[in-house]
Amino acid sequence: MNYFIVTGSSKGLGEATAKLLLKENHHLICIARSENKDLELVAKESGAEFTFLQEDLSKHERVTGIVQYLLSKIEKDGQAEGVYLINNAGMVDPIKPAGKADENSMTKAVHLNLLTPMLMTNEFIRLTEEWDCKKMIVNISSGAANRPIHGWNTYCTTKAGLDMFTKSVGLEQSQAPHPTTILSFSPGVMDTAMQGVIRSSDKENFLNVDTFKNYYDEGQLRNPATVAEKMLELILSRRVENGRIYDIKEFI
To answer: Which of 3, 84, 155, 215 does the annotation list as catalytic?
Structure first.
């Protein structure tokens, strides 16, 4: 049995990834703020095992306990061939220049985009240190990790931090007796609800808003299902370099 934990699974890339993972011999564990009835229906039809946890992962104080609970269940089953954690949950807000964003929205973004995947990774590795099976963590990155974007100072910073965390942990795990493979995957611009948030931004707060409107108008946004397919092909079928940052452009 292969176990997949996917955060932010109710929409966008998370939903597309979850749907592709609903297969026999897979146990899919979805964590999101809201339910997705489509996933439940697909799970019943596919014969896959499906678990849903309704959680707000920006509340970082709950994260360690969630990982402990899930991994204890997996350990008790005693059937794990592979265990995968896909840290997909994230938010682009606040889209505002420094000096205009409010403290609460900045704090929530840092917790969800950076602190939560760090804590989940830390606890995952601690609890599975002696597990002799395939173990992999996938952190969803962004092109914003590599370049500054007006109004995205919080998002850019959290994604850059997550990439460096991935590189550092990959270096550490390369020396472990039963290593966990960790990577970052940058999906590029996709047709998701997050893009809708971006397009609705005021130009005063986000100077490049017209560029993102053009992406949508000109059909340049990738289908999340296509991106999810390429990402899963990478982590399930290819040899992965520990700590590497992968980009969707390498595979399409």
So the answer is: 155
Is residue 55 within 8 Å of residue 33, measured between CB atoms?
Answer: yes
CA 67/CA 74 separation, integer angstroms: 11
Pull the structure tokens for residue 187: 């999906």
Torsion of the alpha carbons at 69, 116, 184 and 89, rounded to the nearest 10: 90
Q: Read out DSSP for 170-208?
A: HHHHTTSSSPPEEEEEE--SBSSHHHHHHHTS-TTT-TT
Entry pTM: 0.95
Distance, CA of 132 to chain centre: 24
Residue that has been written with the tokens 């914003």 in this structure: 144
**170 within 8 A of 121, measured Cβ to Cβ:** no
Cα–Cα dist 151/199, whole Å: 13
Per-residue pLDDT of the chain (252 residues; tens, 9 = 90+): 999 999 999 999 999 999 999 998 999 999 999 988 889 888 888 888 999 999 999 999 999 999 999 999 999 888 899 999 999 999 999 999 999 999 999 999 999 999 999 999 999 999 999 999 999 999 999 999 999 999 999 999 999 999 999 999 999 999 999 999 999 999 999 978 888 889 988 888 888 888 888 887 888 889 999 999 999 999 998 899 999 999 999 998
Q: Is 84 a catalytic residue?
A: no
